[in-house]
Amino acid sequence: MAKNRSRRLRKKMHIDEFQELGFSVAWRFPEGTSEEQIDKTVDDFINEGIEPNKLAF
């Protein structure tokens, strides 16, 4: 059954247009991976996955 809720209540409950979705990322690099390679991988992920999709981190 649909409920009519005020904008303030929808915002407080994080529903409808205020719904927030998320995901987690876990990194595992082989032992001996250089700090530069790790930085490049993380930067590439941000530049190619996060920013083009207008996601926040």
UniProtKB/TrEMBL annotation:
Origin: domain of life: Bacteria
InterPro entries noted in UniProt: YggL_50S_bp (IPR007416)
Any one Gene Ontology cellular component term annotated for this protein: cytosol
UniProt-recorded name of the protein: DUF469 family protein
